[in-house]
Amino acid sequence: MEINRSKLSKYLLTTQALYVHKETDPSCKKTNTMSYPKTISSFHAYLFRAYPWMRNNATRLDISSEQIAELKAIVGDDVTPGTYFYHAKLYNAAPKRKATILVTNLSGSTKATKKKITEILEDTAASKWTNEDRLIFNRKKGLPRKQTKPTSKIAFECVVDHVPARNGVIDFKAKPRSETKRSQLAEGSDAVEMNYAVVQSDIRKSSDMLGKVLEQCIGIDDHTKSKVFYKAKFQFSVDQALIGFDLHCWFRFIKTRYPKLAGKWSDRQIIRII
Fold first, then answer.
1. Whole-number Å distance between alpha carbons of 51 and 58
2. Distance between CA atoms of 74 and 39, rounded to whole angstroms?
3. For the chain, what are the domain ranges?
4. Does domain 159-272 have CATH number 3.40.50.300?
5. How far apart are CA 11 and CA 46, in angstroms?
6. 269: CB partners within 8 A, 6+ apart
7. What's the CA gap between 186 and 199, in Å, rounded?
């Protein structure tokens, strides 16, 4: 089949023009923050609710008197020709079969009203919005969560109690204070980090040295391993072949997203593996 190049070229130019129009014409841009009712009657009810609310709360929402005046000129009343409420009155008073001119006029006023409301509300800072505002205006997005990045290190040292169990299983309970009875994570933390090494004990004479005794925990370069627990009460298991060795361990509270803000390492604990 032979392609008509002139028709194809005309089609591409027309398509490109429409695309550019949609990209540049502000009236064609969609907002991600507002959602308006689709039917005439539902939008009419929306405006009866939203318009007075906007005027009464203009100061709190930081809406200027000029913006309110511009919206009032578009919304108007049922006696001022060319305004939304005027066209809505004519539309509602018409017979069941509406004249085309009535539909066209009301549609134009509706679009102008939506556009102006959107301009005003999108210019309002998110921090000004309340849940009731979002309900009144059908705002899709709520107030954004405040992103507060912590800057201070975790103030609490990790206090850990342990209960040795048989077969190389040890139960641990972490808490921020020694006088605290319940296990709990420290304020500002979301996990407990444990660094440990299994060391030859006095009762286990062997050439197998899986670690070395450390005065303080520095890192894996000192033959320690690390494990993170996301609850204050946790269980640690050691291979049964290591029963009779000593477990040397240190603990600290951490914030997993901000490792540099971790708390201080606890004193070393030496636990016999039984």
1. 10
2. 19
3. 5-137, 159-272
4. no
5. 41
6. 160, 162, 248, 249, 250, 251
7. 29
Structure tokens at 160: 């850990």
Which residues have a Cβ under 8 Å from the Cβ of 84 and sit 6 or more positions away?
47, 74, 75, 76, 106, 109, 110, 112, 113
Six token digits for residue 106: 């009301």
In whole angstroms, what is the distance from residue 48 CA to residue 15 CA? 40
In contact, 150 and 255? CB cutoff 8 Å: yes
The pair phi, psi for residue 110, each rounded to 5°, is: -65, -45
Instruction: Rounding to the nearest 10 degrees, give the CA dihedral for residues 234, 239, 240, 246.
Output: -80
Q: How far is CA 191 from CA 224, 229, 232, 261, 271, in A?
A: 19, 6, 7, 12, 22
Nearest to 76 by CA among 63, 90, 64: 90
Task: Render pLDDT for 133-167 as a digit per residue (tens, 0 to 9).
Answer: 888 888 765 445 555 678 899 999 999 998 876 78
Tokens in use for 226? Answer: 């690390």
**Placement of tokens 């309340």 in the chain:** 130
* Cβ-based neighbour number of residue 160 at 10 Å: 20
- Residue 117 CA to residue 43 CA, distance in Å, equals 13
pLDDT digits (tens, 9 = 90+) for 178-233: 888 889 999 999 999 999 888 776 654 444 444 444 334 434 445 578 899 999 99
CB 186 within 8 A of CB 156: yes
